[in-house]
Amino acid sequence: MTEQPQLSFFARLWLAFLCFWRVLASRPFAQAVYPLSQGYDAGTLGRPALPKEEPKPALPPEREHASALVLLSMLQREGRLIDFLQENVAGFPDADVGAAARIVHEGCRKVVQQYLGLKPVLPQGEGAAVTVPAGFDAQRIRLTGNVAGQPPYSGALKHHGWVATEVKFPTVSPALDPRVVAPAEVELA
Amino acid sequence: MARYAIGIDLGTTHSAVSYFNLEEGKPRGSAQSMLPIAQLTAPGTVEARTLLPSFLYLPSEQEFPAGSLGLPWKADATTLVGELARTHGAKVPTRLVSSAKSWLSHPGVDRRSAMLPWQAPPEVQRVSPLEASARYLRHLREAWDHTFARTREEAGNSLAQQDVIITVPASFDPAARELTLEAAQAAGIPNITLLEEPQAALYAWLEAQGEGFRKRVKPGEVILVVDVGGGTSDFSVITVRERGGEVELVRVAVGDHILLGGDNMDLALAHTLNQRLAAEGKKLDPWQFNALTYGSRQAKETLYGDPTLARVPIAIPGRGSSLIGGTLRTELSREELEKLLTDGFFPVSPMTELPRTARRTGLAQMALPYAQDPGVTRHLAAFLTRQAQALASSPDSPVDVRSKSFLHPTAVLFNGGVFKAGPLKARVMEVLNGWLTADGGAPAKELEGADLDLSVARGAAYYGWVRQGHGLRIRGGTARAYYVGVETAMPAVPGMEPPVKALCVAPFGMEEGTQADVPPQEFGLVTGEPTQFRFFASSVRRDDKVGNMIDDVAGREELEELAPIETTLPGQPQPYGDLTPVNLQAAVTEVGTLELRCLEKNGTGRWKLELNVRMKE
What is the pTM for the complete model shown? Predict the structure, then answer.
């Protein structure tokens, strides 16, 4: 809020006089003053007026989750992930699946490394003995096995976890339909 | 006054921009000061990357959805520069402009004519090599301005107001330098200076060393810079000497323009693997061949990076949605890699073995003049031998070459992505040290700690600071002497061309901002009509003075003919063909380009001579 002027008694008298006539003479002025008067009665005057909740038009799901689709399309573009997942692996020998996995691995890894900084939640090696202190972050550390008693706990690290330390997704033009994960390619002769 | 010195590495395959804050004026950390260059990486997706692939894609109108080619500073862009141009262009080669820099330095074509993409369909609006270079530079300028000069208060940061240093290969001829300057001006970058790439690489090394360089390089040291980029190989020799108690760096020599680079190496691998696949009955389409080239490069880096691996599998995806069914498999073995790359491009050859040169036919002129011999070491041998001979006959040689059969380097600085492969650096050192030992010299050492991809841009920005009188400056001036052809007067004999002499107009080692004397030789020019002069350069005639005349240019290997120079004297053609007597004078501008002018004898007229951009047919 901008700072309000300190009004003297006479200034207020003059304002009262002005307001009286203006409320009578001008409908828009009266309409503007009315919510202030209501607020005075309700005791909420002086608090920053809450912006009216404009009911946001509900985004269609593909817009709401556009970045997830964009990530899929990047994984497809660089690592052919969707092709891989949509294909029936049952009919192929392991060697063929392995060769394709190299493409998926290399491309998807590139995407993950480029757009996310990933590092283990806990720095210790897996299998190492670790102590979980009191007040630990239950989202970052999950307890398994014989969960009893009070922290600090001691246990063995089974999986070091992953946490994104940096998220640097590119901006994608809203002009594009995010549902298109990969375009069809038509080669002209 | 400029706030930043900005170094632009305008490469054949990649460009990069580095900046140096002149107001802070202190050497930078090794990871700092590269401009993140916003570019399209997919339709509608803008990302900032350190490198801008030097590719231009000219899309058809309906090819991409409306608005998907917009850049943060230009929502309605219709052409593409950078990563998406490169990846998409691989699938539509007829609309992709690549290697514009190699075309820009190709004297066999008119570099101002709209000729690229070379095989474009007729409806594509082609661009000239000059225009393509200008578009890359404009993209870099706009990316800079968008990052640093977006608001009105920051207007003083705009690129046009900074000291901009653009790097060129040391082997670029005067016309190619002039065209680079022209491209920068067309891109809206008025204040530029040109710097040779190997020098920029050494500046970057000097900046990274700080004061410690005095421990690593001593007076008497002869540093060989081996710069193998994506498309060209460039050699320079820079020596360290002491003069009046001050350490001084002098650029002694530069090599010829060799169109041979890392891309050729990856292609060589891909072609070999492709032959093997073809023998197995598997045929690759052009897109798959591209994927194979990419896979070969990855495999190469893996093998060179890990000496314990004997072979690396390569998977080439099919284009269809069936990934597992469509994938072709092959592998690259260490044996093949060493045979093809290490021995093919960096052979252990004796000093005396010179690169093969194949005779060119007239038709070959239209393609890029790629090096005929892939042996980088053989090109290096030829360079060092030729320069030693030149220095031996020079009374004022900055390097002692007495009783040496070639120029002995004492240290080597590598540059270019090719040398990320440690074994290739080791091979060059092995070959060079073999030559040195055989010639009775001490082995050379490698100057370590260079960033192979970014040092040219970084060094160029640092040079902006050096130019203001800080740190060590590399001296040397022009690396060639320049000559114009003079026809000798002799009675006409049918079927015999009169011999042409070469008149030296600019000596070796002219510094920026100087002009040469006026040679006594006088020419008569016809008013109002274009006059052409044949134009020659020599990288080995170090001691010719202005006015020296070389008899009969025919068959002289030390003279290289460049595209001709041309001028038109203003005025109307005279009925009797009146001749105006003129002298020629050369000057090296502050920017680093060569300028030739005609001075009217007994008058005040002066005309600039244009460096022609196309070789005479």
Answer: 0.83
Same domain, A36 and A70: no
- Dihedral, CA of residue A13, residue A14, residue A19 and residue A25, to nearest 10: 130
For residue A15, give its domain range: 9-42
The answer on pLDDT for A28 being more than 50 is yes
Helices (H), B286-330: 286-305, 323-326
Between residues B301 and B450, which one has the greater pLDDT? Answer: B301
What is the H or E stretch that residue B199 is in? helix B197-209
Q: Min CA distance, A157 vs chain B (Å)?
A: 31
CB contact under 8 A, A100 and B298: no
Within a domain: A189: no
DSSP states of B162-193: SEEEEEE-TT--HHHHHHHHHHHHHTT--SEE
In degrees rounded to 5, what are phi and psi of residue B350? -70, 155
Cα separation, B412 vs B425, whole angstroms:
10
Q: Are residues A78 and A163 in the same domain?
A: yes
A62 touches chain B (CB under 8 A): no
User: What average pLDDT does range A39-50 have in this prediction?
Assistant: 69
Task: Write the pLDDT tens digit of every residue in B497-516.
Answer: 778 888 998 999 888 888 88
Closest CA to B229 of B183, B184, B185, B172: B172
Kindly list the residues of chain B whose beta carbon comes within 8 Å of any beta carbon in chain A: 41-47, 65-68, 70, 91, 298, 313, 315, 317, 319, 321-325, 327, 329
Residue B67 and residue A175: Cβ atoms within 8 Å? yes
Q: State what percent of residues in chain B have pLDDT above 70.
A: 94
**Residue A174 located in a structural domain:** no
Continuous segment of H or E residues that includes residue A32 = helix A27-42
Give the pLDDT score at B617. 43
Asked if B231 and B13 count as a contact pair (C-beta separation under 8 A), the reply is yes
A contacts of B44 (beta carbons < 8 Å)? 172-173, 175-176
Mean pLDDT of B374-395: 89
Q: Please indicate, yes or no, if residue A15 is contained in any of the structural domains.
A: yes
pLDDT, residue B610, reads 77
Q: Which chain A residues are within 8 Å of B313, Cβ to Cβ? A: 99, 102
Same-domain status, A88 and A158: yes
pLDDT tens, A96-133? 899 899 889 999 999 999 899 999 999 999 999 999 99
Nearest CA-CA distance, residue B158 and chain A, Å: 24
Concatenate the DSSP letters of all residues of A95-111 into one string: HHHHHHHHHHHHHHHHH
Of B47, B319, B324, the CB nearest to A87: B324
Please indicate, yes or no, whether residues A69 and A14 belong to a single structural domain of this protein: no
Number of structural domains found in chain A = 2
Count residue pairs from A and B with Cβ separation < 8 A. Answer: 72
Instruction: Judge: A171–B66 Cβ closer than 8 Å, yes or no.
Output: no
Is A100 in the same domain as A131? yes
Mean pLDDT of B311-321: 88
Tell whether A176 is covered by a domain.
Answer: no
Same domain, A68 and A160: yes
Q: Which residue has the higher pLDDT, A36 or B135?
A: B135
Q: Are strands B579-588 and B594-600 parallel, antiparallel or unpaired?
A: antiparallel
- Residue in A99, A170, A187 nearest the CB of B315: A99
Q: Which residues of B touch A176 (CB under 8 A)?
A: 43-44, 65, 67-68
In this complex, do B68 and A175 lie within 8 Å of one another by their Cβ atoms? yes
Same domain, A115 and A32: no
Question: For A99, which residue in chain B has the nearest alpha carbon?
Answer: B315
For testing contact with chain A, the best of B287, B323, B329, B331 (most A CBs within 10 A)? B323
Say if CB B194 and CB B177 are below 8 A apart.
yes
A14/A67 same-domain check: no
Q: Between chains, do B325 and A102 touch, taking CB under 8 Å as contact?
A: no
- Which pLDDT belongs to residue B155? 83
**Mean pLDDT within A68-97:** 91
Distance from CA of B141 to the nearest CA of A (A): 21
